[in-house]
From TrEMBL:
The keyword Membrane applies. Its main location: membrane. It comes from Parvularcula dongshanensis. GO terms for biological process: transmembrane transport. GO terms for cellular component: plasma membrane. This is AEC family transporter.
């Protein structure tokens, strides 16, 4: 495994360039949105294809990884929902945005570059990204679109809303790239050398670009936070950054006894809240300011806690 400094110095260097670019107003929020779409829709899928052509096919232990992750996610989402409703007084729809921010981590911009740097963490990390894309997005969307008291139920009911959200999440370009690459790997497909070189060359853009966007948004987020509720941060961030990874790591170790899968589960669930939480809350107009505060403060604290986690694991 590479050393912590080998991973973190380039990682934090890219983030620092993004922070400086935002602080000096070289780029604004609209440019950050465009750059994030480039990373999410183009660069990261090509990176995933490049990786899967060299990776081993997942083994049966991944069933324990997925089971431990889903169990920890359900418990953590339940805790976040109850805290949001009982302690913070949010509606069901607002609590859905809080649950989404608490259970969806910054896997694309922060987690995947770390997992790819370690190597052995990347295949299970990508598997967890698929689970998150299907389950967490479906759960969050279902809650955020929950009918208000007295309102007509959504078309297809709650089940229809959940299945529709899962279907949209399943078309995530990164998820599709992983499934395509994995299928070709299972079939024994040999990539032509020029194609492989293209994938490696273009895929190398994704990590630095994603980390740059993360730093840029970190610099711009404070200006978009109209409220900073210390009570919400104190209630939800410990669930995201401590309880959730503790549960997931414990369940995965219990089910698999595999140190690599356990380490990957810890990293994946310990990541700070994803910027996608802001996009989702804004789209459904649910708890927008509170979500921005969770992501902004959670990213700062999460960078520190992920660093400590890597120091322990590596």
């Amino acid at each position: 495994m590479p050393s912590v400094s080998t991973i973190l110095i380039p990682l934090f260097g890219c983030i620092a360039v993004g922070v400086a670019s935002g602080a000096w107003r070289l780029f604004g929020w609209s440019e950050a949105r465009v750059l994030s779409r480039f990373v999410f829709l183009v660069a990261m899928p090509i990176t995933v294809l490049s990786f899967t052509r060299k990776a081993e096919v997942p083994n049966l232990a991944y069933a324990g990884l997925v089971g431990g992750y889903l169990l920890a996610t359900m418990l953590s989402a339940g805790a976040a929902f109850l805290l949001s409703r009982k302690l913070l007084g949010l509606t069901v729809q607002e609590a859905g945005a809080a649950v989404f921010a608490t259970t969806c981590g910054n896997a694309v911009f922060l987690g995947l570059p770390i997992a790819l740097a370690v190597g052995s963490w990347a295949p299970p990390f990508l598997m967890l990204m698929i689970c998150e894309g299907l389950f967490v997005f479906a759960l969050g969307t279902s809650l955020m679109t929950w009918p208000a008291p007295g309102a007509a139920p959504p078309r297809g009911g709650v089940l229809g809303t959940s299945l529709g959200a899962a279907w949209r999440a399943g078309r995530n370009p990164i998820v599709l790239a992983f499934l395509i690459g994995l299928s070709l790997d299972v079939l024994g497909f040999e990539w032509p050398e020029p194609v492989g070189r293209f994938l490696d060359l273009f895929g190398g853009v994704a990590g630095p670009a994603g980390l740059f966007v993360l730093g840029l948004m970190l610099a711009l987020l404070p200006g978009r936070q109209s409220e900073l509720n210390p009570r919400a941060l104190a209630a939800l961030l410990p669930v995201k950054l401590a309880v959730y990874p503790g549960l997931c790591g414990g369940f995965v170790w219990l089910f698999t006894r595999d140190p690599v899968l356990t380490q990957t589960a810890l990293l994946f669930t310990a990541l700070p809240p994803a910027v996608a939480s802001i996009v989702q809350s804004a789209h459904y107009r649910r708890y927008e300011a509170g979500t921005a505060a969770l992501v902004g403060s959670g990213t700062l604290i999460g960078l520190a806690t992920v660093t400590l986690l890597l120091l322990v694991l590596l």
